[in-house]
Amino acid sequence: MQFDTKIALVIRTDLEAWQKLNVAAFLSSGIAAAFPECIGEPYQDGSDTPYHALIGQPILIYGADRPALARALDRALARNVKPAIYTAEMFKTTHDAANREAVRAVQRTDLDLVGLAVRADRKVVDKILDGLKFHT
């Protein structure tokens, strides 16, 4: 099935494995919160055990270095696509309010981005991520 929109995460390639997983989880939650219509129906197994619903379309994960992440952020904002972001400072915090404070304390051009997520029209996302490769 082909979707009109594309969900993509871009995660900095020089992070520890646990950090990459953490960033992916937080960024995915940002997309789910911003686009509740992308959430599918709840799951249920053959024993009638209920499970939570998930995002109902593929999430593509790309790798990038710092300059490529900054470029993707600039491209997203230039196309009026509001991204979810995660910064290195957020690894040092312990709760949501502290995360927001850590981001608020830094000018956009000085953000130490470790990840971002976007959901938009497929072609727009392709332009935002042009030149990036899937994360390995």
Task: Provide an overview of this structure.
This protein has 136 residues and is α+β, with helices and mostly antiparallel strands. The chain has one domain: Bit1. Helices cover 35% and strands 24% of the residues. It contains four helices and seven strands, in the order E-H-E-E-E-H-E-H-E-H-E. The strands form two sheets. It has a five-stranded mixed beta sheet with strand order 5-6-1-4-7. A two-stranded antiparallel ribbon has the order 2-3. A hairpin with a 5-residue loop joins strand 2 and strand 3 (50-51). Helix 2 (66-78) packs across helix 4. The longest helix is centred in the first third of the chain and has 18 residues, at 17-34. The chain is globular. It starts with a strand and ends with a strand. The model has no long low-confidence stretch (mean pLDDT 97). InterPro entries: DUF2000, Pep_tRNA_hydro_II_dom_sf. Pfam families: DUF2000.
Question: Key features?
Answer:
single chain, 136 residues, alpha+beta, Bit1, five-stranded mixed beta sheet, two-stranded antiparallel sheet, 4 helices, DUF2000 family protein, Pep_tRNA_hydro_II_dom_sf, DUF2000
Overall number of structural domains? 1
Number of E strands: 7
Top CATH class: Alpha Beta
Order of strands across the main sheet? 5-6-1-4-7
Proportion of strand residues: 15-25%
Order of helices and strands: EHEEEHEHEHE
CATH topology: Bit1
CATH H-level superfamily title: Bit1
Return the average pLDDT rounded to an integer: 97
From the N-terminal CA to the C-terminal CA, the straight-line distance is 24 Å
**CATH architecture annotation name:** 3-Layer(aba) Sandwich
Number of helical stretches of at least 4 residues: 4
Helix content: 25-40%
Instruction: Write down the Rg.
Output: 16 Å
| Spatial shape | globular
For the sheet with most strands, the description reads: 5 strands, mixed
Q: What class would the helix/strand composition place it in?
A: alpha+beta
Low-confidence sequence ranges: none
